[in-house]
Amino acid sequence: MKTSFLAVQFAVLALALPEPEGHEFRAPGPFDSRSPCPGLNALANHNWLRHDGKNLDWPMINTAAQDAYGFGPGMYKPFVDMVFQFNISTTNTPNETFNLFDLARHDTIEVDGSLTRNDIYFGDDVHFDASVFAPVAQDLGLNQNLSAHSFVTTETAALATKNRLALAKRVNPAFNASASQHESEYGTTALYLYTLLDEDSGTTPKPWVKAFLGEDRIAYSEGYSKGSSVKTQEQLDAMLDALLSLATAQLYLNVTALGAADGASTIECWQVKSPFAVATDAGTPGSAIAQLGNIANMSYLAIPPNFDGGLHRALAKQWVYMTSGLAYTTVPGNNSAGAYMTGGEFGLIFAADTADVSTEGHRTQYHSNTQTIGIQLPTLNGETPAHDVLHSGPCVTGEVSGLRSLV
Ligand code: HEM
């Protein structure tokens, strides 16, 4: 109750913040020049760069990136240099200045698979395209829970970019982004996450991302502040590294499991082989979801406080989810390898030590002073989910707590 009250207070405060004088948002007119880059367009829309977006030079970009976004001096020099190296400027001084529209020349700085613009194959790679952005916004969860304290995580951003690249590749027969160009999409993902990083919370608020990517607008009215510390190339590179490793390393669910070897039960840490994906279902878009297979039936179990379940085998190959309470499981002959399971966030285990593979089974004691509530979910046809055994013994906190950063 208290949290949501504070959140509302913050949201109201954020909404009340004015745009800086002289830098109010003004959409481009028909003769203004704009680019495929939301970062530069927003600077022009807020008059940090000339509003007409024409005849821009390096000092102008350098000053605007510092004043509006808090970047250190010199950070964007390599990008501006590329304009002249690719020889894409159409101004009268093409070695010193450029118009924003010049940046739309395909296969120079502009590449296929952008988050907010379509590929040139479909005719327009410069204007915001709602149909391109819709699935990205859905992956980022920008369509719901837009309170001031909701934010885009690095994991979600990496998955959203990965999905956008995969979609662009599928629908565009001329898709030609090379591996290094793919990397540039993660580079621009790092750019928006870092440019819009809220210094106070250390996160990138969703409303700021939505205004920036969706409207080429700096979210002053939603509370955007560039903060007081200078943004650096090193931090931006670190963000890019994190995004790339998240995009290449898929995330998997680790669970403690009761297995069996040589007719005896074992306690092991399993990694379920179907990786997390970004959910697109109504109600939970943008969430991380892993498929755990089909279920035969389901039962709800209320175990008394301080209960000893004795030695027994799993009745079926089944998921067991403890919503509350505390369980301690051991296997005969190996007292050192006990597994404590607490109900709640990490209360999921898989039990596979059925009578056909384990002679004695395992023993579970419920040490809690309250009831332990469990949901039993036997798998369809007694299937065991495809998995890798990470090690013997239960999964440790670090192996399961990583999931927290997904939500
Ligand atoms: C000032 C800070 C800047 C920020 C925050 C920024 C941010 C971004 C973002 C988030 C994108 C991805 C848009 C999308 O995928 O739809 C992007 C794309 C782009 N940016 Fe910037 N940018 C900045 C500066 C620059 C500069 C200095 C240049 C070149 C002079 C530039 C050229 C481009 C181009 C050509 C694209 C399109 C790339 C593509 O095809 O995906 N940007 N930028």
Summed up:
This protein is of the alpha+beta class. It has helices spanning 2-16, 38-45, 58-69, 77-85, 130-140, 154-171, 179-195, 206-215, 233-248, 397-401, and strands spanning 56-57, 97-98, 151-152, 204-205, 254-261, 264-272, 277-278, 288-289, 299-303, 307-312, 318-322, 326-331, 334-342, 348-351, 362-366, 372-378, 387-392.
Textual characterization of the structure:
- With 407 residues, the protein is α+β, with helices and mostly antiparallel strands.
- It has 2 domains: 2-248, Chloroperoxidase-like (Chloroperoxidase, Orthogonal Bundle); 254-406, Sandwich (Jelly Rolls), CATH 2.60.120.
- The chain is 30% helix and 20% strand.
- The chain contains 10 helices and 17 strands.
- The protein has helices at residues 2-16, 38-45, 58-69, 77-85, 130-140, 154-171, 179-195, 206-215, 233-248, 397-401; strands at 56-57, 97-98, 151-152, 204-205, 254-261, 264-272, 277-278, 288-289, 299-303, 307-312, 318-322, 326-331, 334-342, 348-351, 362-366, 372-378, 387-392.
- Strands 9-16-11-14-5-6-17 form a 7-stranded mixed β-sheet, with no helix packed on it. The protein has a 4-stranded antiparallel β-sheet with strand order 10-15-12-13, with no helix packed on it.
- Strand 5 (254-261) and strand 6 form a beta hairpin.
- The relative contact order is 0.11.
- Mean pLDDT is 89; it is low at 1-14.
- Residues 36-40, 61, 65, 69, 76, 79-80, 83, 103, 109-111, 114-117, 185, 188, 191-192, 195 line the site of protoporphyrin IX containing FE.
